[in-house]
């Protein structure tokens, strides 16, 4: 567990869910830690049936944080600062439960007041109780003030960037503020799309098809253990727009292919579904993240070389593999980015990412692009991808690379006409998040000209 989150016993109660949730929210907002790190660490200390509520509270508070903050400001005379910030987070959790869950309002108040005691905040129990009960009494008037104007629920710097870049910027914000749909990628080596859809129907799981040949969208999110054939690699959970990556790369059997920044491995396994006899190297800079890649490969019964290394230093990890002189037929570069296209899946990004981060990410992307390009064969393909909606990381990045790299050529993407019509970029292809569709994603396909 991270410092600041108390380890609870295996006989955890519903009360401890709120305790852990408050501490996690505190660590996100005050210490800049990520839900994707904190939630897995907390799982071992809670019962399985408590985890959905923990996730609902933590993701939910981050999704609607500005609205909750404005409500607290209406109810508390002086801002809760310093050591009192944990009390502020406790109020956020209480308000979220009252407004966004089916927990009866007075039960939610009682539970949050009790949570103050478990957090050793007994001296604030009276304050918490008074604030939340006042909200219940004055709810209509308070919400009328708070909701008088449309709320973006996004930081101003990001809203301003979206306004400048997109005429339909409000659509992006609205999609970001919704819970994400669940998409599946059917392994066509094991089932046809329609055959797998029939298996879902037999389990009373409704799904929809799209123009993507392997994608199914679920009407309601479903735990993976309830998905037919999941355990033996028949299906993978992967966003609709992310599923285009391997298809656009067009891997072939017998080729040497690099999946750079590969974790958690969804694209690695997709490459091997399309080209089972390809030699694939899955690279990521974080050893801990590579465990997920290995688990996904094992579940899919696939083989790849998995290595921890820095994409800006290819000579180092290639030397470890004894491949210093090799050149790749294809490279999938899913570059480190702002992740502004997947905010609905990771709402804490809105509060963890800073405007100053963007220039640093752009510089890193540029460095990786130039380094990996040197290890691509003539006539080889590099597919550049991000889960960002910011032009600095996407179209401008690729335009600059083309200007600086004489042997690089941008080629058209083989996408269905109805998908091509969605493009929001003059250079490459920009998906924006869609309420019932895929996340924000960018693709540019580059071919290396013969000298």
UniProtKB/TrEMBL annotation:
Function text: Specifically methylates the cytosine at position 967 (m5C967) of 16S rRNA.
Binding locations of S-adenosyl-L-methionine: 261-267, 284, 310, 334
Domain (SAM-dependent MTase RsmB/NOP-type): residue spans on this chain: 172-449
Main location: cytoplasm
Catalytic activity: cytidine(967) in 16S rRNA + S-adenosyl-L-methionine = 5-methylcytidine(967) in 16S rRNA + S-adenosyl-L-homocysteine + H(+)
Pfam family name, one: NusB
Positions annotated as active site in the UniProt record: 387 (nucleophile)
Keyword Transcription regulation: no
UniProt entry tagged with the keyword Iron-sulfur: no
CDD domains per UniProt: AdoMet_MTases (cd02440), Methyltransferase_Sun (cd00620)
Protein name: 16S rRNA (cytosine(967)-C(5))-methyltransferase
EC class (word): transferase
EC code(s) of this entry: 2.1.1.176
Assigned protein family: Belongs to the class I-like SAM-binding methyltransferase superfamily. RsmB/NOP family.
Keywords in alphabetical order: Cytoplasm, Methyltransferase, RNA-binding, rRNA processing, S-adenosyl-L-methionine, Transferase
Top-level taxon: Bacteria
Localisation per UniProt entry: Cytoplasm
InterPro entries cross-referenced by the UniProt entry: MeTrfase_RsmB-F_NOP2_cat, MeTrfase_RsmB-F_NOP2_dom, NusB-like_sf, NusB_RsmB_TIM44, RCMT, rRNA_ssu_MeTfrase_B, RsmB-like_ferredoxin, RsmB-like_N
């Amino acid at each position: 567990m991270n410092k600041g989150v108390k380890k609870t016993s295996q006989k955890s109660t519903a009360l401890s869910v709120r305790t852990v949730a408050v501490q996690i929210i505190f660590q996100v907002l005050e210490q800049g830690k990520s839900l994707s790190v904190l939630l897995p660490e907390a799982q071992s200390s809670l019962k399985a049936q408590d985890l959905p509520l923990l996730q609902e509270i933590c993701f939910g508070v981050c999704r609607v944080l500005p609205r909750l903050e404005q409500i607290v400001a209406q109810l508390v005379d002086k801002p809760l600062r310093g050591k009192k910030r944990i009390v502020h987070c406790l109020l956020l959790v209480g308000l979220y439960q009252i407004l966004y869950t089916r927990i009866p309002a007075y039960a939610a108040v009682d539970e949050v007041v009790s949570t103050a005691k478990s957090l050793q905040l007994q001296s604030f129990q009276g304050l918490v109780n008074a604030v939340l009960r006042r909200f219940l009494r004055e709810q209509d008037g308070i919400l009328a003030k708070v909701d008088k104007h449309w709320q973006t629920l996004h930081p101003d710097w990001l809203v301003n960037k979206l306004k400048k870049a997109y005429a339909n910027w409000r659509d992006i914000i609205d999609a970001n503020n919704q819970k994400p749909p669940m998409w599946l990628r059917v392994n066509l080596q094991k089932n046809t799309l329609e055959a797998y859809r029939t298996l879902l129907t037999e389990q009373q799981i409704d799904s929809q098809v799209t123009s993507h040949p392997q994608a199914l969208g679920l009407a309601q999110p479903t735990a993976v253990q309830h998905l037919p054939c999941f355990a033996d690699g028949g299906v993978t959970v992967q966003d609709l727009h992310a599923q285009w990556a391997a298809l656009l790369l067009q891997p072939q059997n017998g080729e040497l292919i690099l999946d750079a920044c590969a974790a958690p491995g969804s694209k690695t396994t997709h490459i091997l579904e399309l080209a089972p006899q390809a030699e694939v190297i899955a690279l990521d800079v974080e050893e801990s993240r590579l465990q997920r890649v290995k688990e996904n490969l094992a579940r899919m019964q696939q083989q790849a070389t998995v290595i921890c290394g820095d994409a800006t230093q290819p000579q180092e990890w290639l030397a470890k593999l004894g491949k210093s002189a090799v050149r790749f037929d294809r490279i999938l570069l899913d570059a480190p980015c702002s992740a502004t296209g997947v905010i609905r899946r990771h709402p804490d990004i809105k509060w963890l990412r800073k405007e100053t981060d963007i220039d640093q990410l752009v510089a890193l992307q540029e460095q990786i692009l130039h380094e990996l390009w040197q290890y691509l064969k003539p006539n080889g393909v590099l597919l550049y991808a991000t889960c960002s909606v910011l032009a600095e990381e996407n179209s401008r990045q690729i335009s600059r690379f083309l200007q600086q790299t004489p042997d690089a050529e941008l080629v058209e993407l083989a996408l269905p006409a109805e998908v091509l019509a969605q493009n929001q970029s003059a250079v490459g292809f920009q998906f924006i998040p869609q309420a019932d569709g895929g996340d924000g994603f960018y693709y540019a396909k580059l071919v290396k000209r013969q000298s």
